[in-house]
Design brief:
The protein has 218 residues and is an alpha+beta fold. Helices cover 27% and strands 24% of the residues. It is globular, with a radius of gyration of 20 Å.
Length: 218
Amino acid sequence: MLGAGRFKTAHPGWLTLFAASESGLGSCPRKKVTIKRPFHKIYPPGGSRAPGKYVIGRYVVADEIPKLFREANVLYWAGPLLEFAYNYIDHCIARSTDPPPFTIPQLRFVEAGLALSYSQAPSDSNQKSKGCPPHAGFLLEELISDDNNRNFIKYIHNMDCNPLLNVDEFGYDIAAFLACMQHIQYVKTGGLAFISDYQGACISIFYIDISIEKLCSR
């Protein structure tokens, strides 16, 4: 296991599609990915709820699949929201007579997708006629290189719109820019939505791996 957050565990894996996509996740064989699954904490009966004093419990499929679909849907909408903010910035630059006095960071989210696992054969003829339901689900994300994990930075927490970094810390300019992106998203959607969590690492460009609790709404 690569690690465990508050709601999901992360595991290393590889992805090979029989029909490879033209770009993005699955466009090349044995693509390194992070495999994520939701979990809940099981504490010992009568024991303390101290951090780390629990075992990982899995949800039944009927509860796990909706959680994964909800997470994938948030990831799906996060990309266009980021692109929307960049388009607004480009529009403002095009209307200005002077270029911005700083370099605009070029950021993107990791590629992600939803994978469902099915049984190879139904247990009976009735099940075959109805179709086989999935027996497990996984959220697949492009793996951020292990060589860059030491540079993995939490820029903005999901409970605070202010940068987590101090002005003199490495990555503060990225954090300040992401705070600006949040502001653009919130204002231009009339307060309907903004991305509430940013973290990531620098490879050739910044990969922002998100673990959004929600797209905040009124």
